[in-house]
Specification:
The complex is a heterodimer.
Chain A: H1 4-11, E1 24-30, E2 35-44, E3 47-56, H2 59-72, H3 77-81, H4 85-91, H5 100-120, H6 137-148
Antiparallel strand pairs in A: 1-2, 2-3
Chain B: E1 6-7, H1 18-24, H2 40-60, E2 67-70, H3 73-87, E3 94-98, H4 103-114, E4 118-122, H5 132-138, E5 143-149, H6 161-171, E6 174-178, E7 197-201, E8 212-216, H7 242-257, H8 259-280, E9 284-286, E10 297-302, H9 307-316, E11 319-320, H10 326-329, H11 336-340, H12 345-348, E12 351-355, H13 362-382, H14 384-395
Parallel strand pairs in B: 1-11, 3-4, 3-5, 5-6, 6-7
Antiparallel strand pairs in B: 2-8, 7-8, 9-10, 10-12
The chains are: A alpha+beta, B alpha/beta.
The structure holds pyridoxal-5'-phosphate (PLP).
Chain lengths: ~150, ~400
């Protein structure tokens, strides 16, 4: 069911942990739905120089978190915001349809961490506030069930 | 992944015992006759089917005429419930079951609701038990059937079937028991226990898959399920799957003969595992009744981690087990059984079911325990939910 790449990122996840004095921290998902991702970013001169994560969730949730941290490092904040859930899934050679919502969480975790960074630095527009606030399980899951159809 | 396989999922299915395979083999090749044919190899097949029927009857304390072979445990459940419902419509339309049944029963009941039947789903206590009093209170003048599983496939809880049988007998309501997980693990006598219908399945006690049986007590009104030829006395048509039926017969004979010894073996493995997990891993909870449970069943929730991750990591170590997390159930919600015993979603997501069997050893248990300790620790280190717990502990 899982690609070799997913299994590799699950069994040997890159960048697990926390960053002390991170410039942005984002947490999405909730325990009731069975997955939570927390992402820590170190940002210098608008470039993401380090990323770490902690995840509670299934194999796909861990693998997408791991892949997301790999994808953001070296990117500017704006470039990182443009990483889609599809990009994360594609980088893992795909995810089973029932697991696509995990890649969504990864995208949202990146956004949430960057929003935190912007908020701390007074860069956040009022209207942008909270695009990645934790939703209910049904929102995350059903939303993507529809997309698959 | 190495070649190592430690199979700890006997509630899902079992291997077929070599003695069982051996008794089946001739019925694929030179003893291939149709059991309905009148010539010699036909009669041989017929005889083999009837001998298997005798063995099933013997194991349950039933008469051979009360045993009907089916294509699976699921089919036996479907037949029992729909068959009683349709045949007793004139008497009433109310069915009583529990919230923790196997989908073979739950979805059948839900289907009948769509056909105008009324179903009561009895809640269970925190250990997964229903009481005879609950059943008695739920019975109404229009109740025709009570269907309750003997033992639960996820948490192993064994229901007080004898006591429930007394209630249903006194009230004149049929009792169907899904004993798919119980046969071969728990002594059963359908007469003493006042069971009217009972389902079983070959692949849970070292017999083949795709064959089951339904016990229908003489006199119970049930419609036929598969319409066609005259097989199974016209009540379940289609050419008999002779090798599978022969295999099921052999398997139930062996299971009944070895019941005590098998039980003792599984109990030793179960008790040691429960004790050691509780001792060596913090933040765990045993799901299901501590004592009224299948001898080979263990179900633990590990807080702050998710079940599918746990299963994948165990698989990498060659250990096959099962979980009730949403990710493994293929739906948005964790197991209905774990929710019914009152677990919050987040704890239900972190459940692990281990079911021991014939080939397991003390060494398997030791290997499992060492692997579990490392894996749980590793996943918790990765879990954002565990951070606060660790911090909390340091502050104490
Ligand atoms: C309690 C229970 N009932 C019914 C079934 C279905 O049996 P089968 O797989 O033979 O259809 C199972 C097996 O998964 C079970 O555990």
């Amino acid at each position: 069911m899982y690609s070799d790449k997913v299994m590799d990122h699950f069994m040997n996840p890159r960048n697990v942990g926390e960053i002390e004095n991170a410039d942005g921290v984002g947490q999405v998902g909730n325990a009731k739905c069975g997955d939570i991702m927390k992402m820590y970013l170190k940002i210098e001169n608008d470039v993401i120089v380090d990323a770490k994560f902690k995840t509670f969730g299934c194999g796909a949730a861990v693998a997408t978190s791991s892949m997301a941290t790999e994808l953001v490092v070296g990117k500017t904040v704006e470039e990182a915001l443009n990483i889609t859930n599809k990009a994360v899934a594609d980088a893992l050679d795909g995810l089973p349809p029932a697991k696509m919502h995990c890649s969504n969480l990864a995208e949202e975790a990146i956004t949430a961490a960057i929003e935190d960074y912007k908020r701390r630095n007074g860069l956040l527009d009022e209207k942008d506030e909270c695009t990645a606030c934790s939703r209910r399980c049904d929102d995350v899951h059903h939303h993507h069930m529809e997309e698959e159809e | 992944m190495g070649d190592k396989l430690i199979y700890l999922d006997h509630a899902a299915t079992t291997f077929v015992k070599p003695e069982v395979v051996e008794t089946m083999l001739p019925y694929f090749t030179h003893k291939f006759g149709n059991a309905s044919s009148i010539y010699t190899i036909g009669r041989e097949s017929k005889k083999a089917v009837e001998e298997a029927r005798d063995k099933v009857a013997m194991a349950l304390g039933a008469q051979s005429r009360e045993i009907f072979f089916t294509g699976s445990g699921t089919e036996a459940d479907n037949w029992a419930i729909k068959g009683v419902a349709y045949a007793n419509k004139a008497k009433g339309n109310h069915i009583i079951t529990t919230a923790i049944e196997h989908p073979a029963v739950l979805n059948t009941c839900q289907y009948l609701e769509s056909e105008g039947f009324e179903v009561t789903y009895l809640p269970v206590d925190e250990n997964g038990l229903v009481t005879p009093e609950q059943v008695a209170e739920a019975i109404k003048p229009n109740t025709i059937l009570v269907t309750i599983m003997f033992a639960n496939n996820e948490i192993g809880t064994i229901q007080p079937i004898s006591e429930i049988g007394r209630v249903t007998k006194e009230k004149g309501v049929y009792l169907h028991v899904d004993a798919v997980q119980a046969v071969g693990n728990v002594p059963i006598n359908v007469v003493d226990m006042n069971i009217d219908l009972l389902s079983l399945s070959g692949h849970k006690f070292y017999g083949p898959k795709g064959v089951g049986a339904l016990y229908i007590r003489k006199g119970v009104k049930v419609t036929s399920f598969i319409h066609g030829g005259h097989q199974e006395r016209g009540r379940r048509a289609s050419t008999e799957n002779v090798p599978a039926i022969v295999g099921l017969g052999k398997a139930i004979e062996l299971a009944t003969k070895n019941l005590e010894e098998y039980n003792r073996k599984l109990l030793t493995l179960r008790e040691k595992t429960i004790e050691e997990i509780t001792k060596r891993i913090p933040f765990v909870k045993l799901n299901g009744d501590r004592h009224k449970r299948l001898p080979g069943n263990i179900n633990f929730s590990f807080e702050y981690i998710e079940g599918e991750s746990l299963l994948l990591m165990l698989d990498m170590k060659g250990i096959a087990a099962s979980s009730g997390s949403a990710c493994t159930s293929g739906s948005l919600d964790p197991s209905h059984v774990l929710l019914a015993i009152g677990l919050p979603h987040e704890i239900a997501h972190g459940s692990l079911r281990i079911t021991f069997g014939e080939e397991n050893t003390q060494e398997d248990v030791d290997y499992l325990l060492d692997s579990l300790v490392t894996i749980v620790e590793r996943l918790r280190e990765m879990s954002p939910l565990y951070e606060n717990v660790k911090r909390g502990n340091q502050n104490v």
